[in-house]
Amino acid sequence: MDKRNEFEKAAENVKEGIKHSAEDLKEAASDKIEGFRTAAEKQGEKLRSASEDAWSQAQDWQHRGIQLIRENPVQAVAIAFAVGVVVGLLIRK
Q1: Which helix (H) or strand (E) holds 4?
Q2: What is the DSSP code (8-state) at residue 1?
Q3: Which positions ≥6 away from 76 have C-beta within 8 Å?
Q4: What residue spans define the domains of the chain?
Q5: DSSP code of 72?
Q6: What is the pLDDT of residue 12?
Q7: End-to-end distance of the chain based on CA atoms, in angstroms?
């Protein structure tokens, strides 16, 4: 009987150890996941900010281009014609 009680106690100790290890593993995994989530959110915010900056810059360039065309329409037509000729020659070959 005494051996059986010792065996049951040892089994219970092993069971508790496994349970605690599983809880520790779960907590560690949760911490890692939260860290990944936080890092992903930061990177997403950086990407969002960069894309907004790029969009703003593209709009500025567009407005400047339109302004230059309105200020110099003859020059703009001449440049467009020259670019068309060059592209046509390149495609033709």
Answers
A1: helix 2-71
A2: -
A3: 68, 69
A4: 2-92
A5: -
A6: 85
A7: 99
Structural contact between residues 73 and 65, judged by C-beta atoms closer than 8 angstroms: no
3-state SS, residue 93: coil
| 72 φ, ψ (degrees, to nearest 5) | -130, 70
**Contact assessment for residue 69 and residue 76, using Cβ atoms and an 8 Å cutoff:** yes
Amino acid at 53: D
Q: What are the tens digits of pLDDT across the range 16-57? A: 888 888 888 989 999 899 999 999 999 999 999 999 999 999
CA atoms of 79 and 5, how far apart (whole Å): 97
Q: Are 8 and 15 in contact (CB under 8 A)?
A: no
Residue 68 in contact with residue 76, Cβ under 8 Å?
A: yes
pTM to 2 decimals?
A: 0.52
